[in-house]
Design brief:
The complex is a heterodimer of chains A (290) and B (332).
Chain A lengths: L1 H8 L6 H28 L4 H5 L12 H9 L2 H32 L5 H10 L5 H19 L7 H25 L3 H9 L4 H12 L1 H17 L2 H6 L7 H4 L11 H34 L2
Helix pairs in contact in A: 2-14, 4-14, 5-8, 5-11, 6-8, 8-11, 8-14, 9-10, 11-14
Chain B lengths: L1 H23 L6 H33 L21 H7 L4 H34 L7 H13 L2 H11 L6 H9 L14 H26 L4 H9 L4 H12 L1 H16 L3 H7 L10 H11 L3 H34 L1
Helix pairs in contact in B: 1-2, 3-14, 4-8, 4-11, 5-8, 6-12, 8-11, 11-14, 13-14
Classes of the chains: A mainly alpha (290), B mainly alpha (332).
């Protein structure tokens, strides 16, 4: 029987039923995951005739034309720049603010600590649609009253996006900071660092993986958001999330260009994410999942 | 609105004040400073959460009691009070508006339960299968995370292309290659749109469950498995008796987060279907968005949003109550 065979190899060796079901399951799952990725990559290299007619698994010919045309069909470079500025600024602000908050919660006991963490976390459950309308009106009215253009500007979008990633970032960093031994920053305090010196010279360097993970998360959140981008931007400040829809509102739908543009837009985030994913898993293990 | 700018400036000042303080050293950390410091550190986060989440939420609740149509957008304070009218319209299930909201609600509940269930199942299975070491494991893990890493709109646009009637992959495979259907189906309109939405949502969502469960698995002490193996428990038994029970606390949070995200999801249906979703896939977020921005009736839209929030609060409360009680009895 198979169990005696496996037992003779090692007491921990998985049985054959496990190995087979694993093989089947992982193969099917890989197919499910990869088919859209294949469609994206292959279609971006097809001539227009291939993507307008019946779907073809194998392209009739390969061309890099779509990658040249995408920049002129819609002002993709401008959208790209807008997204980069908005997501970059939102990430930096979100991480800095989350570091301060998580340090306070992790290292100090003070009145209202629980109220703070619960309130911040519960904002995560709000439906975006609930505060979209009021925020829209709030930004318009702040603009009318003070002349600070929040509505339609990159600033307003940065402000909005950074609060989206803030709750999760704070939550995750609290767990991460908790796992940095207190003795370390107490030693730094004895050596003459202020509390903020201890934060930046001891706690932050020890929590770099967690901070990287949080930054990745914040950037992805801002880069992929559609709802607020579709309401709060105008022609000058439009981000990729809305701009990409420009390819399909034209008379002809240039699917090869859409796929090429999607790929160009995705590669930076996907590459960054895959490079840094081990930090995210480590960050989740230390922080969120406990 | 000068108060908001004032607080924003205050927040900026604290940040500026803190950074040189860090370099200057400990001498000035007096008693008052020490008590105030945690609050100063929290201030930026607090101000921003207030400005972007809590104040708008209060405004939203106020708006839901007003007759806020397009004529009052510029100066919404002057819109007349309408009492509970907006709520009455929203829950009058005999009239078209209320009926549509109720339908959308049921579609959303069904969709959410199926999507969360499938995401959790696939994510957990994948995480458990990927525990051992085998060739290509690292590569596979990276591949599995791609759907999660892709920006929502590029992923969904790709699915839109695949679901096209004439030139999409799905019809090509089902109709031309496997001959499963008599004629090519429409996926983005009509009843099939529910299946399309569910497929995209699961494709996009399961890697998150995978990621969290994978992290949770690393916190299960290896000794438990060793002890079980010594007692003669096989692989499947170890999974059932050790792995799944140990994942309980992780699952408690994971399922709740997945539920809230899926229920509130706007990006996926909006990119998949555009401004008006087909009835079979009319998720509540898009429904409210449409009710507010297409008809410019913010009052009714706000009332619907408040009802949605109340529903989510109740569900979350009951869920937390039930799961933490279950946890306590399990511990005993």
């Amino acid at each position: 029987m198979s169990s005696t065979v496996t037992r003779s190899r090692s007491p921990m060796a998985p049985p054959r039923s496990f190995l087979w079901s694993r093989r089947i399951f992982l193969t099917l799952l890989t197919g499910f995951v990869l088919v859209p990725v294949y469609v994206m990559v292959s279609s971006s290299l097809k001539p227009l005739a291939d993507v307008s007619g019946k779907f073809r698994w194998i392209p009739s010919g390969l061309t890099i034309r779509p990658y040249i045309d995408i920049w002129s069909t819609v002002p993709l470079a401008k959208y790209f720049m807008n997204s980069l500025i908005v997501a970059g600024a939102a990430t930096v602000c979100s991480v800095v603010i989350a570091v301060f908050s998580a340090y306070a919660v992790s290292r100090y006991s003070f009145r209202g600590k629980r109220v703070f963490t619960v309130t911040v976390l519960s904002t995560q459950m709000f439906p975006g649609i609930l505060f979209l309308l009021p925020l829209f009106l709030l930004y318009v009215n702040i603009g009318n009253a003070t002349g600070i253009a929040l509505f339609g500007s990159r600033g307003g979008l940065i402000l909005t996006y950074l609060t989206f990633s803030l709750p999760f970032s704070i939550w995750m960093l609290i767990g991460y900071f908790d796992s940095v031994p207190r003795d370390l920053d107490e030693a730094a305090l004895v050596d003459g660092c202020g509390p903020l010196g201890a934060l930046f010279r001891v706690v932050v360097p020890a929590a770099i993986p967690g901070i990287v993970a949080v930054a990745v998360y914040a950037f992805m959140t801002a880069w992929g958001e559609v709802l607020f981008a579709s309401v709060m931007t105008n022609d000058a400040t439009r981000t990729l999330a809305v701009g990409l829809q420009g390819y399909s509102t034209l008379n002809d739908v240039y699917w090869n260009q859409i796929m090429a543009a999607s790929l160009v837009v995705s590669v930076p985030v996907v590459a960054g994410f895959l490079l840094l994913q081990r930090y995210l898993v480590a960050g989740l293990t230390a922080g969120a999942v406990k | 609105m000068t108060t908001t700018t004032a607080t924003a400036e205050a927040a900026e000042r604290t940040v500026r004040k803190n950074s040189p303080g860090a370099a200057r050293g400990p001498r000035r950390t007096g008693r008052i400073r020490r008590i105030g410091l945690p609050y100063l550190l929290l201030l930026p986060a607090l101000v921003l959460e207030l400005l972007v989440h809590l104040v708008p939420m209060v405004i939203g609740i106020v708006m839901s009691f007003k007759e806020l149509t397009q004529f009052y957008i510029r100066d919404w304070g002057t819109a007349p009070w309408s009492g509970l009218d907006n709520y009455k319209v929203s829950v009058d299930f005999d009239a078209p508006v209320g009926k549509a909201l109720l339908d959308s609600f049921f579609v959303t509940v069904t969709f959410t339960l199926l999507s969360v269930g499938l995401c959790w199942l696939i994510g957990t299975a994948a995480a458990i299968y990927m525990q051992g070491t085998f060739r290509g494991r690292g590569l596979l893990r990276a591949l599995f995370l791609i759907p999660y890493a892709l920006p929502v709109y590029t992923a969904v646009i790709t699915w839109v292309f695949m679901f096209q009637h004439d030139n999409g992959l799905v019809n090509h495979v089902l109709h031309d290659q496997l001959h499963l259907t008599d004629k090519p189906s429409f996926w983005l309109i009509g009843d099939n749109s529910f299946i399309a939405l569910l497929t995209v949502s699961v494709w996009k969502g399961w890697p998150f469950a995978f990621l969290i469960v994978m992290a949770g698995l690393q916190n299960i002490p290896q000794e438990l498995y060793e002890a079980a193996a010594l007692d003669g428990a096989g692989m499947w038994q170890q999974i059932r008796r050790i792995t799944l029970p140990s994942l309980r606390p992780v699952n408690q949070v994971l399922v709740l987060v997945l539920f809230l995200w899926t229920f509130n999801d706007f990006n996926t249906p909006y990119v998949l279907f555009g401004k008006t979703a087909p009835e079979a896939a009319d998720l509540i977020s898009v429904h409210i968005y449409q009710a507010s921005f297409v008809t410019w009736n913010f009052g009714t839209g706000s009332a619907m949003s408040v009802l949605l929030l109340l529903f989510l609060l109740v569900v979350t409360g009951v869920y937390l109550l039930l799961t933490s009680r279950g946890r306590k009895t399990a511990d005993v």
